[in-house]
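hiii so um. not sure if this is the right channel but i have a protein structure encoded as tokens and i wanna go backwards to a sequence. like what aa goes where. can anyone help
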């Protein structure tokens, strides 16, 4: 089993799966491998098939049983039995899933990479940019991007401008922690507490 991390609480559970298995090995984790193959026929790329199976293997690990994932026309995932709210994310080599019986959830995992240094002005306000720690610049920027992806998944609205509608309160990045964030896209203009972790290969945020 390639579960890198798993957390189960009363109302929420989430995990990270490191994609180390082959497709053939992953298929053996399911009660009906042929059904899994049929459902992912539309995926031709090997990496996408690995992601697809890894998400469902992690979902099974978190729930203790197999669940079927479906998608709204917007692309948002949901469980066919509506037993949990669900959010899914993937980056190179990893997938992440979060579930809650109580509220909408969001999760995002981002691979470490310095390309983010050139993109900050496209998704961050001037005020946010001014708060970035020089000694942890890449990780701090990735956490801002990841957090806004997480918020986007939770609010479930179209035409969201990451720079104008999603705002991250100043925080000093540690190995793990929390920070506040706000959305200005809906009439509710909600406040959220986001959790995060920094790993050598990636950052992850969830709410």
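sure thing!! here u go:
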């Amino acid at each position: 089993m390639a579960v890198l991390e798993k957390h189960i609480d009363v109302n929420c559970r989430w995990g990270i799966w490191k994609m180390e298995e082959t497709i053939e090995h992953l298929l053996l984790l399911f009660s009906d491998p042929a059904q899994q193959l049929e459902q992912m026929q539309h995926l031709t790329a090997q990496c996408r098939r690995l992601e697809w199976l890894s998400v469902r293997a992690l979902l099974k690990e978190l729930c203790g049983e197999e669940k079927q994932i479906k998608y709204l026309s917007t692309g948002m995932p949901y469980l066919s039995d509506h037993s949990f709210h669900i959010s899914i994310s993937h980056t190179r080599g990893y997938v992440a899933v979060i579930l809650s019986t109580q509220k909408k959830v969001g999760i995002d995992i981002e691979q470490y990479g310095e390309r983010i240094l050139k993109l900050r002005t496209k998704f961050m306000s001037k005020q946010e940019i001014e708060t970035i720690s020089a000694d942890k610049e890449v990780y701090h920027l990735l956490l801002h991007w990841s957090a806004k992806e997480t918020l986007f998944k939770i609010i479930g609205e179209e035409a969201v401008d990451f720079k104008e509608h999603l705002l991250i309160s100043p925080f000093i990045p540690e190995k793990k922690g929390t920070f506040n964030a706000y959305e200005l896209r809906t009439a509710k203009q909600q406040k959220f507490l986001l959790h995060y972790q920094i790993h050598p290969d990636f950052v992850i945020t969830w709410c």
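oh and The chain is about 30% helix and 30% strand.
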